[in-house]
Amino acid sequence: EIHIKEPIEKEVNPRLLPGELLLCEASTVYKYVQEDGSNRGTYGKLVCTNFKISFLDDDSASDDNEPQFKNKIVGENDITLQCVDQIYGVYDEKKKLLTGQLRKYPEKLIIYCKDLRVFNFCLRYTKEEEVKRIVSGIVHHSQTPKLLKRLFLFSYASAAPNNTDGRNQTVMFETLEDWRDELERTKGNVKYKAVTTNEGYRVSEKLPLYFVVPICISEESILKYEGRGIPIWCWSCHNGAALLKMSAFPKEQDDSTSQMQKAFLDGIYKTISKPPYELLKMDDLSSSLPSLQDIQTAYTRFKQLFLIDNSTDFWATDVKWFSLLESTNWLEIIRRVLKKAIEVAECLEIQQTNVLLIEERATDLCCVISSLVQVMMDSYSRTKSGFQSLIQKEWVIGGHSFLDRCNHLHKSEKEEAPVFLLLLNCVWQLVQQYPPAFEFTETYLTVLSDSLYVPIFSTFFFNSQHQRDTNKSGESLKTQSGPFRFLTVWDWSVQFDPKAQAFLNNPIYAEKPKPDKSQRKTARFKHQRQLSLPLTQAKPSPKRGFFREETDHLIKNILGKRIGKFINSSDEPPNSLREFYDSWHSKPVDYHGLLLPRIDGPEIKVWAQRYLRWIPEAQLHGGGTIATAAKILDLMEEVQSLQVKMDEEHSQAVCGDVHSVPVLRNSARLSSLFPFALLQRQSVKPALPTSTWKDLEDEDDLVKRDDEFVDLSGDML
């Protein structure tokens, strides 16, 4: 039975961006509402452009009841072509993956998205010719290999006016001055230098134009092996120890070449082992962390848990939720990556040793670990502009292959791996454990992950700075006289208006106080003492620490042998790491100092907002962190209104630095996955709820997260 909503009579046309072209469309398409299998839905028009797939119904024509958190580029019924994961056709109630040329056209179309949305379209009432055009068009434009210049990125850049917000404070690291400023900020300019050796990309097309190396490294050494075997600077700790990365030599080579390269490396190591440099610890990430293939396999399994077609599928998997979650190995990979970052932090902070991360190209796991270490050890990287600058430095300019790893061109699935998503998942663990330490929210991380698939920004659509620079030329387009002017994703005004951008800012961020000049020396000394932890044996609490033996039955079921594997996976003696971890966690948290993630079994959680936001059954109405946030935001709104009244009384202008506060109406009815799930329908549970679902509702678990906001009666005041 189908509950029919009559087809719309008025014409609804898609809103096209500059450079966007309508390629094909089909009328009288029925879009199902994911709910309880009742086949409820609405009629509309399904269109495909060179930018997106879009469903248009009568609600699309009106601006009434618009959500508070609306993306100006991608609507709730829009799917960018790069966001399409897989497309299935339904033939006689059987699902079949659609690729390439089709001999027979389906009666239903199911589109699975990389942001985990699922769209179900019925084509039974659509004209046959329109079905052929729309299905063929969607499959062709979203699934077949394409050339780089065919990306919508170039069409948009050639047609859109360049009127972006010029107040972006993100450091882009495209100039020599940017690198010198970063060296000065971290006090690394005594031992390291920014070099211009790669200007014109004469050393390597994989390296950025400018980068930083130890002062003792000569230009000849950099040129010898196209930058391989050269320690490249990432960041300097307050005590002088530095985090470095290096692109390794290929392993399979003839003996004479290997001997020459070994002699070259020995010379480099001897050079930087002398004073004023600290001792050097090398860490080959290809052997100490999972491979990219393992990461891709784990994530592929993991995301299947959240690509739910209907309510029946959700409840069918509920009984074995924990075993399914554990079998993906995704949370275990997050744990291993966080543990590796703790190891590196311990070397830099306690042992005062330089750490050299080694990887084949130093553009994947090196980026993850170096970024995580900086987020944990440098409070600047926990501000919004600082975090964005970090992504620019380590990932965009650092040469992470976004084009290949995200498979934007559908050229090779072998190169695909969610490395950047892995970083965001790890950062989210820190954000939800220490909310006041971050200027941005989990909503910021969620929309950043969504922006991976929005091809109007150049940030995540090139493999290197060289590829971006060489494709800037617009000579092939007659309408384009000069180089393309690409947008950067860091200009959030392109996607969100000021009210929506307020959801990206953390209202309980414990902003770092600016010390008086007279107290500056004392404050700096205190800051260093808080970072430097004593190596005295701390008696671990029986309720904390990831090295204790777990006895809880539920945790044993979740973890299995995971903790044992986790402890024994390190090559380092566990004692020093254990002391470091337990000693830090036994002290009060300094939100502007070192942060160590809790990596005990239950502490590594599923990023609920990103992965569960489209599933009504997983939402807590009037609960979750949003319940606390709503009260805090109401209080902030009241404080700001009082500030305005005070300023008016004193005839003063309102301070421009005050962040706008999002107003949350009917907060008692908001979903725990707000702002993505607004006022969702209450899902109907089965007549006999499973014991697992009771656990999910009653216990601290993977769906219902703790309300871990700071106690306002404490240090924040």
UniProtKB/TrEMBL annotation:
- Where is it mainly found? cytoplasm
User: What organism, scientifically named, is this protein from?
Assistant: Sitta europaea (Eurasian nuthatch)
CDD domains referenced in this protein's UniProt entry, alphabetically: PH-GRAM_MTMR12 (cd13348), PTP-MTMR12 (cd14594)
Q: Which InterPro entries match?
A: MTMR12-like_C, MTMR12_PTP, Myotubularin, Myotubularin-like_Pase_dom, PH-like_dom_sf, Prot-tyrosine_phosphatase-like
Family that this chain belongs to: Belongs to the protein-tyrosine phosphatase family. Non-receptor class myotubularin subfamily.
Q: Does the keyword Cytoplasm apply?
A: yes
Gene3D superfamilies linked to this entry: Pleckstrin-homology domain (PH domain)/Phosphotyrosine-binding domain (PTB)
Location in the cell reads: Cytoplasm, Myofibril, Sarcomere; Sarcoplasmic reticulum
Q: Which UniProt keywords apply?
A: Cytoplasm, Sarcoplasmic reticulum
**Domain of life, per lineage:** Eukaryota
Q: Which residues form the Myotubularin phosphatase domain?
A: 173-611
Q: Which gene encodes it?
A: Mtmr12
Task: Provide one Gene Ontology biological process annotation.
Answer: phosphatidylinositol dephosphorylation
This protein's GO CC annotations: membrane; sarcomere; sarcoplasmic reticulum
Q: Does the keyword Membrane apply?
A: no
Name the PROSITE patterns for this protein.
PPASE_MYOTUBULARIN
Know the name of this protein?
Answer: Myotubularin-related protein 12
